[in-house]
C-alpha cells in the first residue's frame, strides 16, 4: 500500500521469497499483469534489535532508508548526521519522476542501462 507520510512514512509491506524470478514474472504476465515501472539497485543492510538501515545505490544516486519505530528512526538519523529536513518519504517511482523533470532525462525506467542511454542521448 502507499501508506501515510508525515515526517515518517508508515505502510505495511507484505513480502515473500521467490525462488525463480523469471518464473514468477511469467505467472504474473499469464494473469494479465505487465510491468509498470522497473528499477534497479544495489543494497547494503545493517540492523539491530529495533530496526534497520539500508543503503541503496541507484542509477540516480545513493538513497538511505532507515526503518523502525519513529523514535528509533529519529535517533539513528541524528547519529548518522541526517537532519529531519532531509527526510524523504517518496517512493522510487516518485523520486525518479522528480529527477527526470529536473534533468530532462528521457529514461523510461530507473535502470542503469536506461539512465546511461538517456544521458548519452542528452549529451549529444
Main sheet characteristics:
3 strands, antiparallel
How would the global form be characterised? globular
Radius of gyration: 17 Å
Give start-end ranges of low-pLDDT stretches: none
Give the helix/strand class. Answer: alpha+beta
- Total of helices: 4
Task: Describe this structure as you would to a colleague.
- This protein is 35% helix and 19% strand.
- It contains four helices and five strands.
- The strands form two sheets. The chain has a three-stranded antiparallel sheet with strand order 3-4-5. The protein has a two-stranded antiparallel ribbon with strand order 1-2.
- A hairpin with a 2-residue loop joins strand 4 and strand 5.
- The mean pLDDT is 92.
Output the keywords.
124 residues; alpha+beta; three-stranded antiparallel sheet; two-stranded antiparallel sheet; 4 helices
Question: In a few lines, what is going on in this structure?
Answer:
By secondary structure, the protein is α+β, with helices and mostly antiparallel strands.
Fold topology:
Layout: E1 4-5, E2 9-10, H1 21-30, E3 42-47, E4 52-58, E5 61-67, H2 70-79, H3 92-103, H4 112-123
Antiparallel strand pairs: 1-2, 3-4, 4-5
